[in-house]
Amino acid sequence: MRWPILILTALVVLLQYPLWLGKGGWLQVWETGRQLQAQRAENLRLEQRNAGLEAEVNDLKSGNEAIEERARFELGLTRPGEIYVQTPGR
User: What is the model's pTM?
Assistant: First the structure.
């Protein structure tokens, strides 16, 4: 009577193996889901960065205010008659 139980148990284990550990099994699905979630977070971060860059490009194309602002802060340029005063940061 013991052999049929062992055979059935072995058969159940053999049938469960592909479900849990085989190609397309639960472990692989879980890992793929984790990678997908990480990639979506990275894509969202890059989309926000791209939107900011696109807005900056549009500002630079549309007028002189953005160009003047960049020249003032990055290059320290001033208009004629202005005095540049720099204060130490905190």
Answer: 0.54
